[in-house]
Each structure stands twice: as structure tokens, then as C-alpha cells.
């Protein structure tokens, strides 16, 4: 058994959350990624968020495609079912799994190659269908497992030892998501643990697909300080859009006093609230064109903006469109097979 | 000498009528609505109690290219394709060729507006003055061409002696009993019939007489039957990408599910998703099967090419799902609207690495229905992908059949552990062969137990589903998968065998080639008695081996170029490789009995 994590023992001072689990219960297997990989810090934040939000591990599924990023679901939430799919095909698998049981919470982890190249079609169609899940792209602009080729999100003109110079413009996954109809589009930086955590919490409450494009530097193949997806560059050029504070609905709502004009509060579908500090005064996350313009501007100035870039909670999720009620995976045999008389009756029209 | 005298001279006088035994072909242009007229004829004959079958030979085109509809009636019950004696010539583009193909003494019913009708001395001609017959009928301009086709229905009814009341009943079924449509169409039929009665003299020998051989039977397409089977098999997630000739499978599923599978509150117990391509369709059913839904997709050859990566994945990770492949002619785009059995060897071992999949081989609408529900059972029992290989001929054409038998067993959900079972067992290992049948236990996401979770991966794994590159883990797992496939032999539908004690020659076939073979066997019986084994699934069981052992020579007859099933059987039974002989052929059309007969005799003569 992979990390069976028996119920917490009574060897006291372990802190338990509201569902009786310790933070350790949200761990996965030990990571086999490189030391210092941005992906590992994202995995730690997922563990932390699971603990803080009192998630029941059996109600979560974690999915991924192929690549370094896609290995990481093994390194968190060991008590949740995991599905390491095919390269670029996680979106379709997630769609199917969540049609079978739309009451599950899904966390998908993909990479820039997995999403931006081989999986672009499935990525766009997942957004278009608004499948309810958190879709994390651990974005480092490079193919790590095959030793350093450019991915489609690599910056034009970027110079790497193995691959030489990148001649093509990058695909901005946040822009692609907005255009495809995604209602929760955020960008963050793996080094900014607090922001990653807050965005994750908000994303888990969104009623549709929530995209977190997290710049996650590759320590082995794309960490030159002048590369926009390196730690050095990230810490210097990160431009937070908002400060986030997330208050789960289950708790009493108490937020810091808001300065008029500085905060924007958005009620999430499940009733929980997300409050945003609008550092970039002219950015309104509910304005689609403004979001696209802001991304475009950032691309031109070589910065990456972080925070919730676009938010629209109004589109129904796929499960809602399909009017799913009892999870299809849990239907009783009587509801799956009509009675004998139904067959006889039906065939009358074919006589 | 008039036609009648010529006929008498040629020896096919009207005095010896040919009753309930002929083929008729209707030649029209695609998109002119002739399908309604053709199905009206088919249903009329069926309602007269005469065994009948129709085959639509249509183009990959929306409008304009030629299409032929073949109807065979046979009092003996033979329904294989047979060259036609009667032609309804309504397509100027093909009329020259169509007329040439008729045998001497054949009948040509033609649209009198045709300018280029070839005249043959040895044929009987009946005109249909279409423009005259539809003049003044009140229908929207758009529907004029549709109505025009009803004119030949009237003349054919006159020629064969089909009561107009029967035509009206057939039309009713065709138009879902919408009175206005029935009336305007029937008006044309009546006018044409009256015109023919007044102006034509029957000179041909062909006639229909009522029988009782279709009593209690139904008539349906294979795709409809398969979809209905899936509905009763509890399909809950279906995903697909449109492709001829499988599209009508999903059309039927989407029509039937709302009628049969809404719960008391009117909520659907299913979902059908049109995916962005076949890759995604396969991914959706994989995800759904993994999470505990009964999942299927339907496609055709080009689709399973795209699905190959998920099929390899599904084999290795052991996820239940069903793929219906309605075969058309490949390779490549091939002939999208013609039939074949060309995907057999591809489907059987689809995927990179060592992969094998159960393949069900329906030959009739009854089997489409049965395999429709059974495939979903097998997928979950075996925790693997199951292919159902139908073909365009079966899937898209209307066939007679017995009303379907209700499933004779409850839904088989396979080895799925509940939270209570996990508690009692103290955990489980996802890929461990506990029962010795190669089939492990699984849990579904959402199972409320801390020991329920496991990690599904297409990479090397051990019994606990943990990542492993160890040599013995790899080999042990693959050996277990092979063992599981052995278990499949006894679970998949067994073959149907007709043993003939005096036969030294056996025939093995599968799917829709059976109709030509059954007719050929009857015709050959006096000179070449044969036994017949009809495969209904792969992998084969002992019965197939015994059948081959009991005959000196066994011909494997199939509708592809390379003898794909022949190759599979030789590999499965190397000890009988020399005894198995291939008769294979593919031109896009269903086999005829005559071709089977001639090929068998030729093979036997050259021994």
C-alpha cells in the first residue's frame, strides 16, 4: 500500500484538523524530483492547503499527464486516488472521472509541455466545458525529463545550453484559458508559498475549471538568472496583482478591516469569500478584456503578473449542464437497467 | 417481336411466375430523400411476411453522388447480397452502367424524364412519368424531390402486387405516424399505382405473395440494436467523435437514453459527451471507467488508430471500458461508406508493447443487442477494454431479427472493494492476483476508507501500484495480465458450431459474412458438405481447437485482403497452421453466396 497512513495515534501533541487528520496525513510518497525543484514546493502547499481546508482525502482525486510536473501527484495526498495519465491527455481523463462522480474534488497537475504543446487541444476543451477542477500548470518553459528542450511557453530569444536559442514566441496559458472560457485564471510563482496557498484555496472553491499557472523554475535546465522562469528572475520581476485572503465558509467570517478602494470581495460559488487587494489599481479581475490586456502588457515588458487575473463564476460546470444528480458511478442496478417490460414495449415500434 | 414474345422465346414466360425470390436495386443520387421511399418498400415486404433485407450502398458525400439500395426477398430466408434482377433507374449519372448490369430477362423501372436510358432487347421496361404524377401535389418546394421518389414506390407496388394498404402502414412507421406527411406521400404512391394499372401491362414474372415468415420479428439496424443493448447494460458515460459509420450508434444512444433511462425525478442516469477527437473520447471513457461508471465509445478504423495510446494504457492499468468499432474499409481514410472486416488484427492487439484485448464479433441485431450489455459486464469483470467489432453493413442497414432477449443475469460489476470489505481485509494490493484468475481487486475513487486509495499509472508498477522499475515486478505483472487473458477465454461469448458428420471440410467465419456462407453451404451441400463454426469472440476457446482438429481442412472466410482472422487462428493454434486456409476478399461490398461457393470449389479443386 502506498502511504497507508493509519489514523493518527494518540501520541499527543500532533495537531489535528476538523476531520481528525494531521498534516502528515496529507503527505504523499517521497519526491524523486530534483532537490530545490519548484514542483516540490507546490506539492508542499497542496499538503498544507488540504490540512487547512479540512479536506477529506477520499473525496479528492489527483490527476496528471506526463513529465516532471506530472510525477508530483505521487508526492502529495497519499490517501487520495491518483491517476497519472498520458502525455497531454489528463484533461479528458479528468472529464470522464468527474462525469462518473461529480462530487469528487479534482486536482490536476500538468506542465508547460504537457499542456502547452501536446495537450493544448484537450486543455482548451476542458476549459470550454468548464469541468470543475483545479488545473495546475507547473511552468518552467523547458522539457526536463528529456534533458532541456524548449517548451511552447519558453520566451522568444531565450538561450539555453542544450537547445540553443528559442526562435518562437511563447504561448501564454493564462490568455489561452481566458479565451477558452475559463472562469478562474491565476498566475503565481512557486517561490511565493503564501500566494500559491491562497490561490489554491480559492481555486478549490470555484464551481468550474480553475487554472493556476505557476512559474516553477527548473533548477537543472532553465535557471539562468536572466531566464524569466528562473528563481532569480522570479523574485526580481514578480508583480503581485492582489493580496489574497481566503476564508472558508465553514469558519466564521472575520477579515481584516478593509481600506475603502483597496479591497475587492468576491463571493465564490460555494459561499466562501475571496478578498483581493488590488495593488494594480487599474485591474479589474472580472473584466475579461482588461485581463487579456494586462497579460499582453506584462508579456511585452517581460514581467509576470501574479494573482487572480480573471474571475467569472457565472458559467455552469459540465456536471450542471449535464444535470447530473446521484453520481453515475454510484447508481444502483435498478437505475442502470430498465425493466423487462420496458424492453418489450420499446420493441413494439420496430415490428 | 414484342417483349412478351421475346421473353417466351428466352424461356422466362410470365406463365411461370417467380414468387418471393428476387433482388431489386434502386439507383438514385445521394441527398434526394430516396431512403424514405426505399425503407417504405422494405417495410412493405416485411409486413407481407416475406423474409427481406436491405443494403444501402452510399457515397461519402452529402448530396449528388450515386447511391444504390439493394433489397433482397427470399422465401427461403436468405438475406445475403445477390445481384439484382429488378432495377429502379432514377439516377442519370449511373443509368448506363446500371442497365448493363441487369441479367437477361431483368426489369428496368425508369424515370421517364431520363434522357439517356440505354435500351436492351432482353429487358422489360416500365416507365414512371414522375413530373406528371407529382404535378399539383401540395408540398413545399423543398420536399418535391422527396415526394418524387414515392412515384417508383407506386409502380413497384403495382408490379409486385403489394397491396396499397400495406404500403400505407409501412409509410406510417417511416414517418412516425405523422398524418400530414403520410397523406402527401401516399397520394403520390396511389397516383403512380393507378397510372401503372391503367397504362402498363405486366410482362415480368416477379411477384410477391403474403407469407408468415416475419411474424413476431422486428426490423432494426445493428447500430440501433447495439445502442439499445448498451442502454440495458447500464451504460452511464458515453463519449464519441463523429465518424461514419459509427455516428448512428451514438445517434441511437442519444435517442434511446432519454426514453429509457431517466429516473423518477426526471434526472438522467447517463451522460453523452461529444469529444474534440477520438483521443479525448477514449480518455473520457478511461477516466469514467476508472471512477466507476459504465463507459463506452463508438468509432471506426481511423478512430481506433487515434485511440491506440489509451488502449495500450487501459490494458496495462486495467480500466474497464468498451469500444465499438463499426468497421469500414481501410487503410487510411479508405472507403468510409463501404463495409469490411479489416480491423480484426489491429483491434485484437492494439497498442505498443505486449497487448491483447477481448474482441466481440456480432453478426446480427440480436447479437448487437446482447453484446451491447454483455461487453459492459465483461469490461468490468475482466477490468479491461473490450472491443465490439461490428461493421458498416450490420451497423447501418436494417435487418430482421427476433425480439431481443432480456439480459439473463444481473449487472456484473466485477471485483470492486467497498469500505466495509477494506476494513475487514485490512487493506488491499491493487495488482495482486488473489484468486488465481489474473483479475485483481480495485477500489473506486470516493470510497470512504483510508486504505482505499491507490495510484494508477501507465509506468511500471508493483502489486501495490507503486512505481517500480524492478525486472521481476515487470515480468510478474505482465505474466498476470497474460493469465487474465486466459480467464477471458471462458468468459467471452462462445462460438456457434454446426457440425456435419459427413463433412471433411470446415468453415470458420465471423460477423456478417455468415449470411453468404450459410446460403453457399446449403447450395454446396450435395457436392461439398461442410461444417461451420461461427466465432463470436476472441480469444478463442477449446471448442475452436476441437473444430479444427475434427476436419481435414478448415477455410477461414473473411472480408479483408490479408486473411486477418486466419493469421490470428494460425498463431493461436500453431499445431494446425497448415490445416487452416484463408479465403479473403475485400472490395467494399458484402460477400455474395455465389462468390463463396465458387471460391470454395476452386480451392477444393486445386488441392
Mean pLDDT of chain A: 84
Shape of chain B: globular
Note poorly predicted spans of chain A. Answer: 247-269, 272-279
Q: What percent of residues of chain A adopt helix (DSSP H or I)?
A: 25-40%
Please give the CATH architecture of the largest domain in chain B.
3-Layer(aba) Sandwich
| Order of adjacent strands in the largest pleated sheet of chain A | 2-1-3-4-10-9-15-11
How many domains would you count in the coordinates of chain B? 4
Number of strands of chain A: 15
| Helix fraction of chain B by DSSP (H/I, runs of at least 4) | 25-40%
Superfamily (CATH H level) name of chain A: Thiamin diphosphate (ThDP)-binding fold, Pyr/PP domains
**Radius of gyration of chain A, in angstroms, nearest whole number:** 21 Å
Structural class determined from secondary elements of chain B: alpha/beta
Architecture of chain A, according to CATH? 3-Layer(aba) Sandwich
**Structurally, how many domains make up the residues of chain A?**
1
* Main interface: chain pair and counts: A-B, 65 and 80 residues
The helix-and-strand class of chain A reads: alpha/beta
What's a concise summary of this model?
The complex is a heterodimer of chains A (351) and B (607). Chain A has 351 residues and is an alpha/beta fold.
Question: Could you give the topology of this structure?
Answer:
The complex is a heterodimer of chains A (about 350) and B (about 600).
Chain A lengths: L37 H15 L7 E5 L3 H4 L9 E4 L5 H11 L4 E7 H5 L3 H10 L3 E7 L2 E2 L5 E2 L8 E2 L3 E2 L7 H8 L3 E6 L3 H13 L3 E7 L15 H7 E3 L1 E6 L15 E5 L5 E6 L9 H14 L2 E8 L6 H4 L11 H4 L3 H8 L4
Helix pairs in contact in A: 1-7, 3-5
Chain B lengths: L2 H8 L7 E2 L1 E9 L4 H14 L4 E6 L8 E9 L11 E4 L5 H6 L6 E5 L12 E5 L1 H5 L9 H17 L3 H11 L4 H21 L6 E2 L10 E4 H11 L4 E4 L6 H14 L10 E4 L3 H13 L4 E5 L1 H17 L3 E9 L5 E5 L4 H5 L10 E2 L4 H18 L2 E7 H5 L1 E4 L17 H7 L29 E3 L13 H21 L4 E3 L6 E6 L3 H11 L5 E6 L1 E2 L3 H8 L3 E6 L5 H9 L7 E5 L8 H13 L2
Parallel strand pairs in B: 1-8, 2-5, 5-6, 6-7, 10-11, 10-12, 12-13, 13-16, 15-16, 20-21, 20-23, 23-24
Antiparallel strand pairs in B: 2-4, 3-4, 9-17, 13-14, 15-22, 19-21
Helix pairs in contact in B: 2-5, 2-6, 5-7, 6-7, 8-9, 8-13, 10-11, 17-20
Amino acid at each position: 500500500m502506498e502511504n497507508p497512513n493509519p489514523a493518527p495515534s494518540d501520541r499527543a501533541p500532533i495537531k489535528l484538523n476538523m476531520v481528525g487528520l494531521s498534516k502528515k496525513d496529507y503527505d504523499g510518497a517521497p519526491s524523486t524530483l530534483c532537490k530545490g525543484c519548484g514542483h516540490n514546493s507546490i506539492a508542499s502547499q497542496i499538503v498544507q492547503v488540504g490540512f487547512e481546508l479540512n479536506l477529506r482525502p477520499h473525496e479528492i482525486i489527483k490527476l496528471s499527464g506526463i513529465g516532471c510536473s506530472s510525477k508530483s501527484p505521487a508526492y502529495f495526498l497519499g490517501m487520495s486516488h491518483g491517476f497519472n495519465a498520458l502525455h497531454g491527455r489528463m484533461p479528458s481523463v479528468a472529464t470522464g472521472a468527474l462525469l462518473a462522480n461529480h462530487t469528487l474534488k479534482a486536482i490536476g497537475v500538468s506542465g508547460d509541455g504537457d499542456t502547452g504543446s501536446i495537450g493544448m487541444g484537450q486543455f482548451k476543451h476542458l476549459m470550454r466545458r468548464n469541468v470543475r477542477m483545479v488545473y495546475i500548470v507547473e511552468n518552467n518553459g523547458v522539457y526536463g525529463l528529456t534533458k532541456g528542450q524548449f517548451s511552447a511557453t519558453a520566451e522568444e530569444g531565450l538561450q539555453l545550453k542544450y537547445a540553443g536559442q528559442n526562435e518562437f514566441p511563447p504561448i501564454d496559458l493564462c490568455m489561452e484559458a481566458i479565451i477558452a472560457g475559463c472562469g478562474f485564471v491565476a498566475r503565481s510563482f512557486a517561490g511565493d508559498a503564501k500566494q500559491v496557498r491562497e490561490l489554491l484555496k480559492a481555486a478549490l472553491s470555484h464551481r468550474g475549471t480553475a487554472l493556476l499557472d505557476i512559474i516553477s523554475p527548473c533548477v537543472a535546465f532553465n535557471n539562468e538568472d536572466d531566464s524569466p522562469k528562473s528563481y532569480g528572475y522570479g523574485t526580481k520581476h514578480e508583480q503581485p496583482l492582489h493580496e489574497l485572503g481566503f476564508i472558508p465558509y465553514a469558519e466564521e467570517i472575520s477579515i481584516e478591516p478593509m481600506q475603502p478602494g483597496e479591497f475587492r470581495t468576491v463571493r465564490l460559488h460555494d459561499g466562501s469569500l475571496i478578498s483581493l487587494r488590488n495593488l494594480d489599481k487599474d485591474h479589474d479581475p472580472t473584466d475579461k478584456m482588461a485581463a487579456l490586456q494586462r497579460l499582453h502588457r506584462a508579456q511585452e515588458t517581460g514581467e509576470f503578473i501574479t494573482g487572480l487575473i480573471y474571475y467569472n463564476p457565472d458559467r455552469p460546470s459540465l456536471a450542471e449542464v449535464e444535470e447530473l444528480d446521484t453520481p453515475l458511478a454510484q447508481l444502483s442496478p435498478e437505475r442502470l437497467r430498465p425493466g423487462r417490460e420496458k424492453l418489450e414495449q420499446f420493441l413494439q415500434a420496430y415490428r | 417481336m414484342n417483349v412478351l414474345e421475346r421473353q417466351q422465346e428466352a424461356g422466362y414466360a410470365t406463365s411461370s411466375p417467380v414468387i418471393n425470390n428476387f433482388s431489386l436495386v434502386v439507383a438514385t443520387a445521394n441527398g434526394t430523400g430516396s431512403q424514405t421511399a426505399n425503407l417504405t418498400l422494405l417495410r412493405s415486404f416485411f409486413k407481407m411476411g416475406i423474409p427481406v433485407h436491405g443494403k444501402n450502398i452510399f457515397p461519402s458525400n452529402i448530396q449528388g453522388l450515386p447511391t444504390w439500395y439493394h433489397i433482397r426477398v427470399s422465401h427461403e430466408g436468405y438475406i445475403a447480397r445477390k445481384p439484382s434482377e429488378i432495377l429502379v433507374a432514377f439516377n442519370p449519372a449511373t443509368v448506363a452502367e446500371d442497365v448493363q448490369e441487369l441479367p437477361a430477362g431483368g426489369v428496368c423501372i425508369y424515370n421517364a424524364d431520363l434522357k439517356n436510358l440505354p435500351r436492351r432487347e432482353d429487358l422489360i421496361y416500365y416507365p414512371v412519368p414522375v413530373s406528371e404524377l407529382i404535378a399539383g401535389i401540395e408540398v413545399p418546394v423543398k420536399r418535391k424531390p422527396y415526394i418524387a421518389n414515392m412515384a417508383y414506390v407506386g409502380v413497384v407496388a403495382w408490379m409486385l402486387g403489394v397491396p396499397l394498404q400495406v404500403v400505407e402502414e409501412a409509410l406510417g412507421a417511416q414517418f412516425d405516424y405523422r398524418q400530414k406527411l403520410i397523406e402527401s406521400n401516399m397520394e403520390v404512391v396511389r397516383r403512380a399505382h393507378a397510372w401503372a394499372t391503367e397504362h402498363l401491362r405486366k410482362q415480368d414474372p416477379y411477384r410477391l405473395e403474403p407469407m408468415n415468415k416475419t411474424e413476431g420479428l422486428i426490423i432494426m439496424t445493428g447500430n440501433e440494436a447495439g445502442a439499445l443493448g448498451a442502454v440495458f447494460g447500464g451504460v452511464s458515460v458515453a463519449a464519441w467523435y463523429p465518424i461514419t459509420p459509427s455516428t448512428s450508434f451514438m445517434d441511437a444512444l442519444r435517442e434511446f437514453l432519454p426514453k429509457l433511462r431517466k429516473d423518477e425525478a426526471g434526472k438522467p442516469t447517463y451522460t453523452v459527451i461529444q469529444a474534440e477527437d477520438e483521443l479525448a473520447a477514449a480518455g473520457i471513457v478511461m477516466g469514467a471507467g476508472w471512477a466507476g461508471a459504465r463507459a463506452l465509445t463508438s468509432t471506426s478504423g481511423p478512430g481506433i488508430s487515434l485511440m491506440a495510446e489509451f488502449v495500450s494504457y487501459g490494458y496495462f492499468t486495467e480500466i474497464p471500458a468498451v469500444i465499438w468499432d463499426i468497421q469500414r474499409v481501410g487503410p487510411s481514410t479508405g472507403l468510409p461508406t463501404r463495409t469490411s472486416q479489416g480491423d480484426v488484427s489491429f483491434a485484437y492487439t492494439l497498442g505498443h508493447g505486449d497487448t491483447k484485448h477481448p474482441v466481440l464479433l456480432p453478426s446480427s441485431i440480436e447479437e448487437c443487442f446482447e453484446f451491447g450489455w454483455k461487453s459492459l459486464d465483461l469490461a468490468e469483470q475482466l477490468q479491461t477494454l473490450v472491443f465490439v467489432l461490428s461493421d458498416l453493413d450490420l451497423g447501418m442497414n436494417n435487418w430482421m431479427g427476433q425480439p431481443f432477449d432480456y439480459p439473463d443475469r444481473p449487472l456484473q460489476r466485477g471485483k470492486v472493494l467497498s469500505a466495509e470489505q477494506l476494513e475487514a481485509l485490512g487493506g488491499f494490493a491493487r495488482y495482486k492476483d488473489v484468486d488465481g484468475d489474473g483479475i485483481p481487486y480495485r477500489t473506486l475513487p470516493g470510497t470512504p476508507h483510508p486504505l482505499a486509495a491507490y495510484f494508477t499509472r501507465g509506468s511500471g508498477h508493483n502489486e501495490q501500484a507503486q512505481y517500480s522499475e524492478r525486472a521481476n515486478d515487470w515480468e510478474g505483472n505482465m505474466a498476470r495480465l497474460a493469465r487474465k487473458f486466459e480467464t477471458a477465454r471462458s468468459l467471452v461469448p462462445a462460438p456457434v458450431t454446426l457440425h456435419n458428420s459427413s463433412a471433411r471440410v470446415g468453415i470458420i467465419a465471423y460477423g456478417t459474412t455468415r449470411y453468404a456462407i450459410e446460403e453457399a453451404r446449403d447450395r454446396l451441400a450435395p457436392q461439398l458438405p461442410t461444417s461451420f463454426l461461427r466465432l463470436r469472440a476472441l480469444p478463442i476457446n477449446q471448442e475452436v481447437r476441437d473444430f479444427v482438429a475434427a476436419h481435414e481442412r478448415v477455410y477461414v472466410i473473411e472480408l479483408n485482403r490479408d486473411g486477418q482472422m486466419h493469421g490470428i487462428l494460425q498463431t493461436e493454434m500453431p499445431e494446425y497452421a497448415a490445416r487452416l486456409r484463408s479465403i479473403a476478399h475485400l472490395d467494399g461490398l458484402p460477400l455474395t453466396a455465389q462468390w463463396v461457393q465458387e471460391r470454395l470449389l476452386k480451392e477444393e479443386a486445386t488441392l
